Amino acid sequence: MDKWKVLSSDYVVKNYPYNQIRRDKCLLPNGLVIETYIQEYSNWVNAIVLTPQMELVLVVQYRHGLGDFVLETPGGMVDDGEASIQAIIREVAEETGYQSNNPPILLGEFSPNPASHTNRVSTYLFLNAKRMDVQHLDHTEDIHVRLIPFETFGQMIESGQVPQMFAVLGYYLAKDYINGK
Hints:
The chain is an alpha+beta fold. The chain has 2 domains: 5-41, no CATH class; 44-178, Nucleoside Triphosphate Pyrophosphohydrolase, CATH 3.90.79.10. Helix content is 20%, strand content 41%. It has a 4-stranded mixed beta sheet. Strands 1-2-3 form a 3-stranded antiparallel beta sheet, with no helix packed on it. A 3-stranded antiparallel beta sheet has the order 6-5-12. The longest helix has 14 residues, at 165-178. The chain is elongated and about 60 Å long.
């Protein structure tokens, strides 16, 4: 098996730091030449944030891609020069006001879509988080915090109320971690 050979590459969208879209003309190992579009994003982070009462700290915000309000786990972009663990601590504090005296636990690092995305997402678990501050939102954010019992969230996933795959993955990874698997 061989990698594709890039014959040419140019940017069709430059929206730094959020995303860039690159058009690559590639020669496949079988001799076929194709054009493909690659989305370059910064790395992302998200977190399962649990209070001492085992309530899950979630955020609700409008997501224009779906044209609707979405219940999600807190998270966001990793800034240039920032480690993912620093980014998730910052994002959770900014979006929710919650913090924990315990260090975040890395549950895994994943590729959101290896066919067309260049970035990775790191999923963390915060235990014994408490509200320590008010939200510090970016000028484009309007985020509402919701607390839901951890086990109830699993039922919400099963009933289709949680469309965001990072929230779903994070929940099941955290559940396994908590149950010692």
